Amino acid sequence: MILPFELLRLADTIIDSLDQDSESHYLTEDSLLKLHNVFPDTILLAALDLIDQRKVTESTTPWGFIEYEVLGSNATHIVYITLPKALTTSYCTCPAFNFAVLETGQSLMCKHVLATRLAVRLDLCVKQQISLDYLATVASQRYK
Ligand SMILES: [Zn+2]
Predict the structure, then answer these.
(1) Centroid of ligand 1 to alpha carbon of 142 (angstroms)
(2) pLDDT at 9
């Protein structure tokens, strides 16, 4: 039997080894099949849909910190995908991650994390540079 932690490693490794079709920049059939083996259809299709609709944003600060945001139907979720390899390597602020991943262990990751991992792998994130002026404004509102 594979432990949940090992299953997550397997999923991470599969995502890191996915192949991209050189013309369509999309996943090859073989890569999609591999994903089907570790993720339920509902999460996989929802994640691919988020990528199709360009809802995964990669924001970079002037000092090079990268943050990912996924625009959900009701809210925007912050996604972390490069956490130190402890029990989990990713985190999302959505309720599904809290319940299905952290509390009950029903899922390896939520659709937002999967979408972000795939979008990064496929270079399909919407990229934006956060300006120093913008950050200074946010900081001054928070700390004054
Ligand atoms: Zn999520």
Answers:
(1) 25
(2) 83
